[in-house]
Structure formats: structure tokens, C-alpha cells
Amino acid sequence: MKREMLCLAVAALVVGGCVYEAPLAEPQGRSIDPAVLGRWKATPDDGGGSALVLAFSDEEYLVHYPLEEDGIYFRAYPIELGGIACVQFKAVGTGEGPVDKDEKSLFHVLSYRIVDGELVVGLLNTELVDKGLTSSAALREAFLEHKDAPDLFTDEIKFRKAAQ
């Protein structure tokens, strides 16, 4: 999969820039949140795209977004760093196959909350945690430096549970 295609698809995930070369954190054995499982549709103001969130295991999600032929499949797992709970995403492939082995920008960090039945998803702010950082250690250091910033996560998109 070409980097440009991956970046565009991930950018669509949460109207944001490209992704990180390293994970903020490796899996920590945290349980998934059953409240986020299912099919979600972005509100019309947020583009109306759909996402599917499945339990891959007790500690990992399988996410497909957007739910279209050119959508990306992600492995995602809950993490916590500096008292901030979020979800680490890693692109794993598309309907055409797995991500190219030489692909570097595979990771995203998202926050979420459920408010009045809506899933509100935010993207880690690349102005605070620079997308040019290439190691997990550097990402963690920047994240912890800005963990109390009110805009640590930005570019929020709201989703509503889709009818079954």
C-alpha cells in the first residue's frame, strides 16, 4: 500500500494529518470498552462516514474505517500514559492486502468519550506531539510534557450508533 493512500485514509479517520512511525505505547493488557463496539456513522456535520469497531480479543479492537471498499483495517488497543487514557491504532491493511513492509507511518493515537449516546473521537495534536518524532521514547516524552494541555486531542468527530 502506498504511503499517500495510507495517509489519506488515516487522515479521513479523524480529519488530521499523517500518522506516526512508532507507537506511543505497546499493548498494556487493558480491557477494551464494550460501549464502543458496533457500527458507527459520523454525524452529517462530520462527513457521514461509517466505522466498524469489533472486539478482536479482550484487549484489542479491530477497526475498519471508512466502511467502504478502500477502507483501512486497524489493530487498536487501549493504553494509558501519564493518567491519560487513549487508544493506540496501527494500520494493518486494506481489502487489497497487508500494509507494505517498508511502510513507516502506521500509528495514530486517539481519544474517545461517549456523550449523550455519541462517540466523540479526537486525534492526538501533532502540534504538541510532533508527527516528525520517530521513536516511541520521543513520543512518550512529548506526550507527557503536554499531558495537561486542554488541546492534547483535537479535530474531534462525532459518531452515532448505526441502526443494525
Features of this protein?
164 residues, 8-stranded antiparallel beta barrel, 9 strands, 2 helices, mainly beta
Please provide a brief summary of the model.
With 164 residues, the protein is mainly beta. The protein has helices spanning 3-13, 136-145, and strands at residues 38-42, 50-55, 61-65, 72-81, 84-94, 97-98, 107-115, 118-124, 153-161. 13% of the residues lie in helices and 39% in strands.
Largest sheet: 8 strands, antiparallel, barrel
Strand order of the largest sheet: 1-2-3-4-5-7-8-9
Give the helix level as a range of percent.
10-25%
Structural class: mainly beta
Order of helices and strands: HEEEEEEEEHE
Q: How many DSSP H or I helices?
A: 2
- CA-to-CA gap between the ends? 31 Å
Structure in words:
- By secondary structure, the protein is mainly beta.
- It has 2 helices and 9 strands.
- The protein has an 8-stranded antiparallel beta barrel with strand order 1-2-3-4-5-7-8-9.
- A hairpin with a 5-residue loop joins strand 2 and strand 3.
- The longest helix is centred in the first third of the chain and has 11 residues.
- The N terminus is likely disordered.
